[in-house]
Records
---
Amino acid sequence: MLKLYNTLTRKKEVFKPIKVGKIGMYVCGPTLNGIPHLGHAMSQISFDVLRRYLIFSGFDVEFVSNITDIDDKIIAGANEAGIGIDEFSEKNLKAHTVEYEKLNIMKPDVQPRATDYVKDMIGLVKKLEKKGVTYLIEGDGVYFDISKFDDYGKLSGQNVEDLEGGKRVAVDGKKNNGDFALWKLAKEGEPSWDSPWGEGRPGWHIECSAMSEKILGLPFDIHGGGSDLIFPHHEDEIAQSETGYGKEMAKFWVHNGMVTVGGKKMGKSLGNFKNIEDLDYAPMVIRYFVVSNQYRKPLDFSKTALDDARNSYERLKRLCLAAKDARKSEVGSRKSEEKVNEKYLKMFEKEMDDDLNAPRAMAVLWKLVRDSDADGKVGTIRKMDEVFGLELLDKEEVLIPAKVQDIVDEREGARAGKDFARSDLLRDRLKDMGWIVRDGKDGVEVEKG
């Protein structure tokens, strides 16, 4: 029975869907103000594993993850780049799409763009206005008065009186420091839409509230995102959704930990920022690095940690492929149903049911592949990898660099001429370069060492 840590209640709870067998899940997707970084990979992979495990467990999952394509940071980034906002957003969206595909992240069932739901956002602001919880700051925009929502702070534990900046005093025209924008009046050169309050655009928080309600209805089962979104983003979503729609927003609030570098939060201002495309590691190595960490804990980045992940992943994959090859030789050309090892599968499920304890579930997989007496090994690896998404049984096409191929060819010539001393010397040179050659009856095989 799956237990998930619910940020709202601050404890692990048995997960029971609102509708039997069906799950509505909304995860905050990327803001298109830049290309994807390691923090995006952490969140995307963490919730991909949760989604995969829910499907593995027999649930019908409707997975929604939005695209924020209008935001202060996007406008600033486009201006800095000297290109239009649409062009800037599309360029970054393409980068996110490409990297997520490489990381074997399943595409959302629904991926709404904020700009396609502005009408719904305006509708929600109107509801809030009728409830008497909004006010207009001339020349600025429409704000939510957090003092009118008694449960404000219930997700994050924030006290309205203790919000950063002091007590409930006016700041830049706001009634309370924590009041947040629902509708921002347009500045010159910014994209805008018509509204009852004037030309403008939606505030960031209102976007997810309107889109999740429109697509999934309220309440839905799981709302997810990085722990940096707990406050103020998710806190504000709860305030405006529950006030405006008069319903609970989500039953479970699930958050992944942050990426750190040397124990410090990763950030551009600290000079320790890591874009995915800058990491000189295969996508499945990055995925293994993330999956091997319990999703709620911080993920500390270092070259040593990723080198260790690469070595572990490559060894695990070699063992899995060896098990697959052994099974092929046993079965021969006969068609045979792939069996699973129920003992190991139950051990795996026990760990995953404990708030997605992927590191311990991964230990079960390692134990399986090292167990020479285990039956149903390949079928069980395949089932576990439905959750991990590490492509453990897929043989990859090896792209051999030209300089490596030249040495391989030279070695083949030496072997043909029976110059075995030269052949051994070239084999050792290849090994030093990180490549292994194996001589078989069907010719030479070359693979990464």
---
Amino acid sequence: MADAYASLRLPPVRRYIAGRFLATMGRQMLGVAIGWQLYDRTNSTLALGLVGLVQVIPVVLLALPAGHLVDRKNRRDVAILSNALLTLCGLALFLISRNQAPIWTIYATLFLHGIAVSFEAPSTGSLMAQIVPPELFANANAWRSSSWQLAATGGPTLAGLLIATRGEATWVYAVDVGLSALFTLLLFTLPRPPTPAPSKGAPQKELRAGLRFVFSSELLLSAITLDLFAVLLGGATALLPAFARDILHVDARGLGWLRAAPSIGALVMALVTTRLAPWKHSGRVLLISVAGFGLATVGFGLSKSFLLSMVCLAFTGVFDNISVVIRLTLEQLVTPNRLRGRVSAVHYVFIGLSNEMGEFESGVTAALIGPVGSVLLGGLGTLVVVAVIALRWPVLRRLGRLGDLVAVDPETIPEP
């Protein structure tokens, strides 16, 4: 049996994962507060969907420049600055909620939040690969995912309790500010990696390098495309305030538990993963896990029971965790160090599109056919996506042990 704590024996890894835990907990609380406050003030599923739209626009516009900056500047410094900006966004939302400012100010702050995340995601994501030996990537990603899921379990639950107790979301934002600030301080304690040497390549070519690398790797492209469309169609998170109040008839505490349910399932699976030997057929496992995600989503859409809904959402987390660990490990193993920031940024475009655009898609379809119809359509669409990806990219079906993969030399990739 593998050493389950191998990566955690490294002090920088422990500090990194602890900081990510705190920041994630704050952001999960933020998501509950924003959803509850907007639906309480507008009674509109479209208003919930717009949260995803305003956050995905900066991701699409800034992903390539952000990835290029992360590969040209010191990654720790970029992570510190972007997390400081996220802390300021949390403070702005606190003031907006406290003073009952107009709805548009929430969206404006979330747009700024999206700008910060565009730089934070590739910088912190690629920073981890520089403090973990390659042979411990899978173990470190399992612990990173475990800590994320633990935070995503406690964050929504605590947010729901605070909202129900205080009768408003204001103090949830205050907690997010404190947790985000703590992560920013912890980043200062990590080893400062050397700043990359200035590139001699043409700026436009360097800017496109991450995009070119992703589209040249059938394995990486198929894995993140699978995630993009599965979460774009199958995600139900944005509609949980509507399900909680109008279908399951629960209060803010119930909403917090619904938001936490996927993370409870994912946390259990992540802890199991740290004790398992590497998958022998990683590609098949990835495809089956995404299909399971779609089936669990359909089950949630059909449920009228709070308990059954919790179980279905928990299983979406179980299956999502498996795909996340496989996808992150695959990316880290095949990507050379000098391209990690740009590849991570391109990867985040896919993730951002799937999460934020998925929220917008859910809000629009729910406004047209109702929240139940929106979730059922998305879950069935996920199953179709799995079948199409499996047929389109047989190399993904045949993927074996991730540990057998090696980084690809970017100089061997032809310019399209």
